[in-house]
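This part of the workshop introduces the protein records we will be handling. The structure tokens are whole numbers drawn from a learned vocabulary of backbone shapes. The record below serves as our worked example for the rest of this section.

===
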Amino acid sequence: SLDAERAQEVVAGCGLDPMARPETLTPAEFARLVRALYAAPSSR
């Protein structure tokens, strides 16, 4: 699992607004976020 700080870094790295509501993301943005989250090293 990612801590909050690392999650914010991943979101920002995707070029997404960290304050954006999930339902406002386009399918392409959501897919980009999911790929980045899966690629991010976990904090375990």
